[in-house]
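Hi X.,

You mentioned you wanted examples for the new student's onboarding notes, showing what a folding record looks like when two proteins sit in one file. Here is a clean example. The first protein comes first, with its sequence line followed by its C-alpha coordinates.
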Amino acid sequence: MNAPVRPQRLAWTLTGSGHFFTECFDLMHEIPHLDLFVTRAAAEVVRMYRQKLEQLPNRVRVIKDTTASAAPIGQFYHGLYHTAVIAPATSNTVAKCVYGISDTLATNVFAQAGKCRIPTIVFACDTAPEMDTMAPSGMVKVYPRRIDLENVDRLRTFEATTVVETLDELKQALRARLACVNASSS
Protein backbone atom coordinates (compact mmCIF):
# COMPACT_ATOMS: atom_id res chain seq x y z
CA MET A 1 0.00 0.00 0.00
CA ASN A 2 1.40 3.39 -0.98
CA ALA A 3 1.53 6.19 1.55
CA PRO A 4 -0.34 9.35 0.53
CA VAL A 5 1.84 11.89 -1.24
CA ARG A 6 2.22 15.08 0.76
CA PRO A 7 2.23 18.24 -1.30
CA GLN A 8 5.42 20.23 -1.11
CA ARG A 9 5.18 23.42 0.91
CA LEU A 10 6.48 26.96 0.68
CA ALA A 11 8.87 27.97 3.49
CA TRP A 12 8.34 31.65 4.38
CA THR A 13 10.69 33.32 6.83
CA LEU A 14 9.93 36.51 8.71
CA THR A 15 12.87 38.57 9.93
CA GLY A 16 12.99 41.62 12.18
CA SER A 17 12.04 44.05 9.44
CA GLY A 18 8.90 46.14 9.54
CA HIS A 19 9.13 47.15 5.87
CA PHE A 20 5.77 46.03 4.38
CA PHE A 21 5.44 43.65 7.31
CA THR A 22 1.64 43.71 7.56
CA GLU A 23 1.30 43.34 3.80
CA CYS A 24 3.58 40.30 3.83
CA PHE A 25 1.61 38.89 6.77
CA ASP A 26 -1.62 39.35 4.80
CA LEU A 27 -0.10 37.76 1.69
CA MET A 28 0.56 34.55 3.62
CA HIS A 29 -3.20 33.93 3.74
CA GLU A 30 -3.08 33.25 -0.02
CA ILE A 31 -0.43 30.52 0.07
CA PRO A 32 -2.05 27.06 0.11
CA HIS A 33 0.72 24.98 1.75
CA LEU A 34 2.86 27.19 3.97
CA ASP A 35 5.34 26.77 6.78
CA LEU A 36 6.15 30.06 8.48
CA PHE A 37 9.59 30.34 10.08
CA VAL A 38 9.53 33.08 12.72
CA THR A 39 12.89 34.40 13.90
CA ARG A 40 13.25 35.81 17.40
CA ALA A 41 13.41 39.31 15.95
CA ALA A 42 10.31 38.63 13.86
CA ALA A 43 8.41 37.55 16.98
CA GLU A 44 9.08 41.03 18.38
CA VAL A 45 7.96 42.69 15.13
CA VAL A 46 4.75 40.63 15.10
CA ARG A 47 3.87 42.18 18.47
CA MET A 48 4.98 45.71 17.46
CA TYR A 49 2.73 45.63 14.40
CA ARG A 50 -0.13 44.18 16.45
CA GLN A 51 -0.39 41.01 14.41
CA LYS A 52 -1.19 37.59 15.82
CA LEU A 53 0.22 34.37 14.44
CA GLU A 54 -3.04 32.72 15.51
CA GLN A 55 -4.84 34.80 12.86
CA LEU A 56 -3.15 32.85 10.09
CA PRO A 57 -5.19 30.03 8.52
CA ASN A 58 -4.98 26.63 10.25
CA ARG A 59 -3.13 25.22 7.23
CA VAL A 60 -0.11 27.43 8.07
CA ARG A 61 2.41 25.66 10.24
CA VAL A 62 4.31 28.12 12.45
CA ILE A 63 7.91 27.24 13.31
CA LYS A 64 9.40 29.51 15.96
CA ASP A 65 13.09 30.09 16.55
CA THR A 66 13.65 28.01 19.70
CA THR A 67 16.86 26.09 19.01
CA ALA A 68 20.45 27.30 18.80
CA SER A 69 21.16 25.06 15.81
CA ALA A 70 17.99 25.94 13.84
CA ALA A 71 16.95 22.27 14.01
CA PRO A 72 13.73 22.67 11.95
CA ILE A 73 15.91 23.46 8.92
CA GLY A 74 16.57 19.74 8.55
CA GLN A 75 13.20 19.48 6.80
CA PHE A 76 14.80 21.07 3.72
CA TYR A 77 16.75 17.86 3.13
CA HIS A 78 13.61 15.73 2.88
CA GLY A 79 12.02 17.43 -0.14
CA LEU A 80 9.33 19.13 1.91
CA TYR A 81 9.77 22.55 0.29
CA HIS A 82 9.48 23.77 -3.29
CA THR A 83 10.28 27.42 -2.54
CA ALA A 84 11.81 29.53 0.23
CA VAL A 85 10.75 33.13 0.80
CA ILE A 86 12.43 35.63 3.11
CA ALA A 87 10.08 38.58 3.34
CA PRO A 88 10.65 41.15 4.50
CA ALA A 89 14.43 40.72 4.83
CA THR A 90 16.49 43.05 7.00
CA SER A 91 19.78 44.47 5.79
CA ASN A 92 21.42 42.32 8.47
CA THR A 93 19.87 39.14 7.03
CA VAL A 94 20.81 40.15 3.48
CA ALA A 95 24.43 40.85 4.52
CA LYS A 96 24.74 37.52 6.32
CA CYS A 97 23.26 35.67 3.33
CA VAL A 98 25.71 37.40 0.98
CA TYR A 99 28.71 36.50 3.14
CA GLY A 100 27.61 32.94 3.88
CA ILE A 101 26.91 33.46 7.56
CA SER A 102 24.13 31.17 8.72
CA ASP A 103 23.75 31.83 12.43
CA THR A 104 20.04 32.68 12.62
CA LEU A 105 16.89 30.87 11.60
CA ALA A 106 16.51 33.18 8.56
CA THR A 107 20.08 32.78 7.34
CA ASN A 108 19.91 29.02 7.90
CA VAL A 109 16.75 28.85 5.77
CA PHE A 110 18.60 30.72 3.01
CA ALA A 111 21.71 28.55 3.28
CA GLN A 112 19.89 25.24 3.36
CA ALA A 113 17.54 26.23 0.54
CA GLY A 114 20.62 27.03 -1.53
CA LYS A 115 22.33 23.77 -0.64
CA CYS A 116 19.18 21.87 -1.59
CA ARG A 117 18.72 23.89 -4.82
CA ILE A 118 15.37 25.23 -3.70
CA PRO A 119 14.47 28.51 -5.44
CA THR A 120 14.42 31.44 -3.03
CA ILE A 121 12.67 34.80 -3.17
CA VAL A 122 14.08 37.59 -0.99
CA PHE A 123 12.11 40.79 -0.40
CA ALA A 124 15.01 43.06 0.55
CA CYS A 125 14.17 46.13 2.61
CA ASP A 126 17.03 48.47 1.82
CA THR A 127 16.99 48.86 -1.96
CA ALA A 128 17.19 52.61 -2.67
CA PRO A 129 19.24 55.52 -1.31
CA GLU A 130 16.08 57.07 0.16
CA MET A 131 12.87 55.25 1.08
CA ASP A 132 9.59 55.65 2.90
CA THR A 133 8.59 52.78 5.16
CA MET A 134 5.82 52.15 7.65
CA ALA A 135 6.93 51.97 11.27
CA PRO A 136 4.55 50.96 14.07
CA SER A 137 4.03 54.67 14.77
CA GLY A 138 3.53 55.70 11.12
CA MET A 139 5.49 56.46 7.94
CA VAL A 140 9.20 57.22 8.30
CA LYS A 141 12.00 58.12 5.89
CA VAL A 142 15.06 55.84 5.85
CA TYR A 143 18.39 56.20 4.10
CA PRO A 144 20.01 52.81 3.48
CA ARG A 145 23.79 52.78 3.63
CA ARG A 146 25.91 52.14 0.55
CA ILE A 147 26.94 48.73 1.96
CA ASP A 148 23.26 47.76 2.31
CA LEU A 149 22.61 48.62 -1.33
CA GLU A 150 25.77 46.80 -2.45
CA ASN A 151 24.75 43.68 -0.54
CA VAL A 152 21.35 43.64 -2.24
CA ASP A 153 23.14 43.86 -5.60
CA ARG A 154 25.46 40.99 -4.59
CA LEU A 155 22.51 38.85 -3.51
CA ARG A 156 20.97 39.26 -6.98
CA THR A 157 23.92 37.29 -8.40
CA PHE A 158 23.20 34.17 -6.31
CA GLU A 159 21.96 31.12 -8.15
CA ALA A 160 18.27 30.23 -7.71
CA THR A 161 17.69 33.52 -5.87
CA THR A 162 15.20 36.17 -6.91
CA VAL A 163 15.52 39.53 -5.15
CA VAL A 164 12.43 41.72 -5.20
CA GLU A 165 12.20 45.36 -4.16
CA THR A 166 8.48 46.05 -4.00
CA LEU A 167 5.37 44.36 -2.71
CA ASP A 168 4.09 44.07 -6.30
CA GLU A 169 7.33 42.36 -7.35
CA LEU A 170 6.95 39.97 -4.41
CA LYS A 171 3.39 39.13 -5.46
CA GLN A 172 4.50 38.59 -9.08
CA ALA A 173 7.43 36.38 -8.05
CA LEU A 174 5.15 34.32 -5.79
CA ARG A 175 2.52 33.91 -8.52
CA ALA A 176 5.17 32.86 -11.04
CA ARG A 177 6.77 30.41 -8.65
CA LEU A 178 3.44 28.84 -7.59
CA ALA A 179 2.37 28.55 -11.24
CA CYS A 180 5.66 26.75 -11.99
CA VAL A 181 5.16 24.38 -9.05
CA ASN A 182 1.54 23.68 -10.04
CA ALA A 183 2.52 23.01 -13.66
CA SER A 184 5.24 20.56 -12.64
CA SER A 185 2.94 18.67 -10.25
CA SER A 186 0.16 18.17 -12.81
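Then the second protein repeats the pattern, sequence line and then C-alpha coordinates:
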Amino acid sequence: MRLDVVSLAPEAFAPLLSLGVIGRAFSAGIAQLHVHNPRDFATDRYRKVDDEPYGGGAGMVLKPEPVYAAVEALPVLPRRRVLLMSPQGRPLQQADLRRWAADYDQLVFLCGHYEGFDERIRALADEEVSSGDFVLTGGELPAMTIINGVVRLLPGTVGSQACLEEESHSALLLEHPHYTRPADFRGMTVPEVLRSGDHGAIARWRAEQQQQRTRERRPDLFARWQERDD
Protein backbone atom coordinates (compact mmCIF):
# COMPACT_ATOMS: atom_id res chain seq x y z
CA MET A 1 0.00 0.00 0.00
CA ARG A 2 1.18 3.52 -0.81
CA LEU A 3 0.62 6.16 1.87
CA ASP A 4 0.99 9.82 0.91
CA VAL A 5 0.84 12.54 3.57
CA VAL A 6 0.51 16.25 2.86
CA SER A 7 1.78 17.98 5.99
CA LEU A 8 3.62 21.08 7.14
CA ALA A 9 5.42 18.91 9.72
CA PRO A 10 6.90 16.05 7.66
CA GLU A 11 9.46 15.26 10.36
CA ALA A 12 6.63 14.13 12.65
CA PHE A 13 6.20 10.96 10.59
CA ALA A 14 9.81 9.76 10.73
CA PRO A 15 9.30 7.63 13.90
CA LEU A 16 6.74 5.47 12.09
CA LEU A 17 9.52 4.05 9.93
CA SER A 18 11.20 2.48 12.97
CA LEU A 19 8.19 1.74 15.16
CA GLY A 20 8.04 -1.99 15.95
CA VAL A 21 5.95 -4.10 13.59
CA ILE A 22 4.86 -0.97 11.70
CA GLY A 23 8.46 -0.02 10.99
CA ARG A 24 9.21 -3.57 9.90
CA ALA A 25 6.24 -3.46 7.53
CA PHE A 26 7.71 -0.39 5.85
CA SER A 27 11.17 -2.02 5.71
CA ALA A 28 9.65 -5.14 4.13
CA GLY A 29 7.81 -3.13 1.48
CA ILE A 30 4.35 -4.05 2.75
CA ALA A 31 3.61 -0.32 2.80
CA GLN A 32 5.39 2.77 1.51
CA LEU A 33 5.27 6.15 3.26
CA HIS A 34 5.77 9.40 1.35
CA VAL A 35 5.43 12.78 3.09
CA HIS A 36 5.00 16.01 1.10
CA ASN A 37 5.37 19.53 2.48
CA PRO A 38 3.01 22.12 0.91
CA ARG A 39 5.78 24.71 1.36
CA ASP A 40 7.65 22.99 -1.44
CA PHE A 41 4.75 23.86 -3.73
CA ALA A 42 4.34 27.52 -2.73
CA THR A 43 5.15 29.89 -5.59
CA ASP A 44 6.11 33.10 -3.75
CA ARG A 45 9.62 33.92 -2.54
CA TYR A 46 8.63 33.41 1.12
CA ARG A 47 7.04 29.97 0.49
CA LYS A 48 3.87 31.24 2.13
CA VAL A 49 1.22 28.61 2.89
CA ASP A 50 -1.17 30.57 5.13
CA ASP A 51 -3.01 33.88 5.13
CA GLU A 52 -5.50 35.92 7.12
CA PRO A 53 -9.13 34.77 6.96
CA TYR A 54 -11.64 36.72 4.91
CA GLY A 55 -14.09 38.46 7.23
CA GLY A 56 -11.55 38.73 10.01
CA GLY A 57 -10.96 36.53 13.01
CA ALA A 58 -8.15 35.00 15.01
CA GLY A 59 -5.40 32.87 13.55
CA MET A 60 -4.23 32.08 10.04
CA VAL A 61 -5.82 29.84 7.41
CA LEU A 62 -4.04 27.28 5.24
CA LYS A 63 -4.12 28.46 1.63
CA PRO A 64 -5.59 26.20 -1.08
CA GLU A 65 -2.95 26.66 -3.81
CA PRO A 66 0.00 24.81 -2.18
CA VAL A 67 -2.21 21.96 -0.99
CA TYR A 68 -3.83 21.49 -4.39
CA ALA A 69 -0.42 21.60 -6.07
CA ALA A 70 0.95 18.98 -3.65
CA VAL A 71 -1.97 16.61 -4.21
CA GLU A 72 -1.96 17.07 -7.98
CA ALA A 73 1.75 16.19 -8.08
CA LEU A 74 1.12 12.77 -6.52
CA PRO A 75 0.92 9.58 -8.55
CA VAL A 76 -2.60 8.21 -8.75
CA LEU A 77 -3.11 4.51 -8.13
CA PRO A 78 -6.35 2.88 -9.38
CA ARG A 79 -7.75 2.32 -5.89
CA ARG A 80 -7.07 5.60 -4.10
CA ARG A 81 -8.79 7.34 -1.18
CA VAL A 82 -8.09 10.90 0.01
CA LEU A 83 -8.68 11.48 3.72
CA LEU A 84 -8.92 14.94 5.27
CA MET A 85 -8.02 15.10 8.95
CA SER A 86 -10.63 17.35 10.54
CA PRO A 87 -12.40 17.68 13.92
CA GLN A 88 -15.57 18.15 11.87
CA GLY A 89 -15.17 14.73 10.27
CA ARG A 90 -16.83 11.44 11.10
CA PRO A 91 -15.27 9.79 14.18
CA LEU A 92 -12.73 7.12 13.33
CA GLN A 93 -13.88 3.52 13.79
CA GLN A 94 -12.08 0.18 13.55
CA ALA A 95 -14.37 -0.67 10.65
CA ASP A 96 -12.88 2.28 8.73
CA LEU A 97 -9.36 0.95 9.21
CA ARG A 98 -10.40 -2.46 7.95
CA ARG A 99 -12.18 -0.97 4.95
CA TRP A 100 -9.24 1.20 3.93
CA ALA A 101 -6.77 -1.65 4.41
CA ALA A 102 -8.85 -4.03 2.29
CA ASP A 103 -10.27 -1.79 -0.42
CA TYR A 104 -7.48 0.63 -1.34
CA ASP A 105 -3.92 0.56 -2.64
CA GLN A 106 -3.24 4.23 -1.89
CA LEU A 107 -4.31 6.51 0.95
CA VAL A 108 -3.66 10.25 0.82
CA PHE A 109 -3.77 12.18 4.10
CA LEU A 110 -4.41 15.93 4.19
CA CYS A 111 -3.24 17.43 7.49
CA GLY A 112 -4.55 20.85 8.44
CA HIS A 113 -2.68 23.35 10.55
CA TYR A 114 -2.99 26.84 12.01
CA GLU A 115 -6.57 28.01 12.66
CA GLY A 116 -7.85 25.75 9.91
CA PHE A 117 -7.80 25.31 6.15
CA ASP A 118 -9.47 27.12 3.30
CA GLU A 119 -12.90 25.59 2.76
CA ARG A 120 -12.07 24.77 -0.86
CA ILE A 121 -9.49 22.21 0.28
CA ARG A 122 -12.40 19.99 1.33
CA ALA A 123 -13.15 19.39 -2.35
CA LEU A 124 -9.97 17.30 -2.61
CA ALA A 125 -11.13 14.76 -0.03
CA ASP A 126 -13.21 11.63 -0.39
CA GLU A 127 -13.75 11.47 3.37
CA GLU A 128 -13.28 13.72 6.39
CA VAL A 129 -12.08 11.88 9.48
CA SER A 130 -11.92 12.92 13.13
CA SER A 131 -9.96 11.17 15.87
CA GLY A 132 -12.45 12.36 18.50
CA ASP A 133 -14.38 15.29 19.90
CA PHE A 134 -11.34 17.45 20.59
CA VAL A 135 -9.05 19.80 18.68
CA LEU A 136 -5.29 19.40 18.10
CA THR A 137 -2.75 21.80 16.60
CA GLY A 138 -2.68 19.83 13.36
CA GLY A 139 -3.77 16.68 11.60
CA GLU A 140 -0.46 14.85 11.99
CA LEU A 141 -1.33 12.78 15.07
CA PRO A 142 -4.70 11.63 13.65
CA ALA A 143 -2.99 10.73 10.37
CA MET A 144 -0.32 8.72 12.20
CA THR A 145 -3.05 6.94 14.15
CA ILE A 146 -4.75 5.88 10.94
CA ILE A 147 -1.47 4.85 9.31
CA ASN A 148 -0.63 2.69 12.32
CA GLY A 149 -4.11 1.16 12.39
CA VAL A 150 -4.20 0.43 8.65
CA VAL A 151 -0.66 -0.91 8.21
CA ARG A 152 -1.03 -3.39 11.08
CA LEU A 153 -4.00 -4.90 9.21
CA LEU A 154 -2.11 -5.43 5.96
CA PRO A 155 -1.18 -9.06 5.24
CA GLY A 156 2.30 -9.83 6.50
CA THR A 157 2.51 -7.11 9.16
CA VAL A 158 1.20 -9.11 12.11
CA GLY A 159 2.17 -12.76 12.35
CA SER A 160 -1.20 -14.15 13.42
CA GLN A 161 -4.42 -13.04 11.72
CA ALA A 162 -6.32 -14.60 14.64
CA CYS A 163 -4.92 -11.85 16.87
CA LEU A 164 -6.53 -9.25 14.62
CA GLU A 165 -9.86 -11.06 14.53
CA GLU A 166 -10.16 -11.42 18.31
CA GLU A 167 -9.06 -7.92 19.39
CA SER A 168 -11.24 -5.12 20.75
CA HIS A 169 -13.66 -3.46 18.31
CA SER A 170 -13.19 -6.15 15.65
CA ALA A 171 -16.85 -7.14 16.11
CA LEU A 172 -18.03 -4.17 18.23
CA LEU A 173 -17.19 -6.00 21.48
CA LEU A 174 -14.17 -5.22 23.65
CA GLU A 175 -11.53 -7.89 24.02
CA HIS A 176 -11.68 -10.44 26.83
CA PRO A 177 -9.09 -10.37 29.68
CA HIS A 178 -5.68 -11.95 29.14
CA TYR A 179 -3.49 -13.72 31.71
CA THR A 180 -0.06 -15.35 31.75
CA ARG A 181 2.24 -16.84 34.39
CA PRO A 182 2.35 -16.78 37.38
CA ALA A 183 -1.08 -18.16 38.21
CA ASP A 184 -1.09 -16.21 41.48
CA PHE A 185 0.41 -12.72 41.65
CA ARG A 186 0.03 -10.82 44.92
CA GLY A 187 -3.24 -12.57 45.65
CA MET A 188 -4.65 -11.93 42.18
CA THR A 189 -5.28 -15.31 40.58
CA VAL A 190 -5.88 -16.47 37.05
CA PRO A 191 -9.48 -17.72 36.59
CA GLU A 192 -9.64 -21.48 37.02
CA VAL A 193 -11.40 -21.98 33.70
CA LEU A 194 -8.35 -20.72 31.80
CA ARG A 195 -6.22 -23.40 33.46
CA SER A 196 -8.77 -26.17 32.95
CA GLY A 197 -7.75 -27.22 29.43
CA ASP A 198 -11.44 -27.25 28.45
CA HIS A 199 -11.36 -25.26 25.22
CA GLY A 200 -15.14 -25.09 24.93
CA ALA A 201 -15.48 -23.68 28.45
CA ILE A 202 -12.66 -21.23 27.77
CA ALA A 203 -14.36 -20.00 24.59
CA ARG A 204 -17.66 -19.51 26.44
CA TRP A 205 -15.92 -17.66 29.30
CA ARG A 206 -14.14 -15.34 26.88
CA ALA A 207 -17.37 -14.59 25.02
CA GLU A 208 -19.15 -13.82 28.30
CA GLN A 209 -16.29 -11.58 29.39
CA GLN A 210 -16.40 -9.69 26.10
CA GLN A 211 -20.08 -8.96 26.53
CA GLN A 212 -19.76 -8.06 30.20
CA ARG A 213 -16.81 -5.72 29.64
CA THR A 214 -18.47 -3.99 26.73
CA ARG A 215 -21.75 -3.59 28.60
CA GLU A 216 -19.95 -2.04 31.60
CA ARG A 217 -17.28 0.04 29.85
CA ARG A 218 -18.84 0.93 26.50
CA PRO A 219 -22.63 0.68 26.70
CA ASP A 220 -22.85 2.52 23.38
CA LEU A 221 -20.92 -0.26 21.64
CA PHE A 222 -22.89 -2.93 23.47
CA ALA A 223 -26.17 -1.39 22.25
CA ARG A 224 -24.86 -1.44 18.66
CA TRP A 225 -23.76 -5.05 19.08
CA GLN A 226 -27.21 -6.04 20.35
CA GLU A 227 -28.91 -4.25 17.46
CA ARG A 228 -26.70 -6.07 14.96
CA ASP A 229 -27.49 -9.39 16.61
CA ASP A 230 -31.28 -8.84 16.52
